[in-house]
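Exercise 7b. Backbone tokens:
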């Protein structure tokens, strides 16, 4: 058996703890990155038959989403409600 380290925000894991720490700093699911996956405006409007269809409720375009993580996060990002 081998010890592995897992990202606190997603399912990424590795035997190298330093690699996982580096990953966590840029993980799309880390709220500190302010990416779509941790934003309350990212909503699944899909159907069971067609699958998930995530959309931004504040109309951040797909061309903008590519630059969000490398540009310090989305300017319209808001934390998900914890209720």
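Sequence design result:
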């Amino acid at each position: 058996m081998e010890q592995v380290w897992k990202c606190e925000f997603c399912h990424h894991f590795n035997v190298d703890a330093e690699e996982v720490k580096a990953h966590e700093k840029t993980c799309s699911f880390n709220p500190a990155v302010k990416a779509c996956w941790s934003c309350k405006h990212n909503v699944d409007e899909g159907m069971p038959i067609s699958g998930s269809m995530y959309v931004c409720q504040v109309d951040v375009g797909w061309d903008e989403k590519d630059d969000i993580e490398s540009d310090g996060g989305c300017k319209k990002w808001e934390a998900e409600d914890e209720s």
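Instructor comment: The chain has a mean pLDDT of 86. The CA atoms of residues 48 and 79 lie 26 Å apart.
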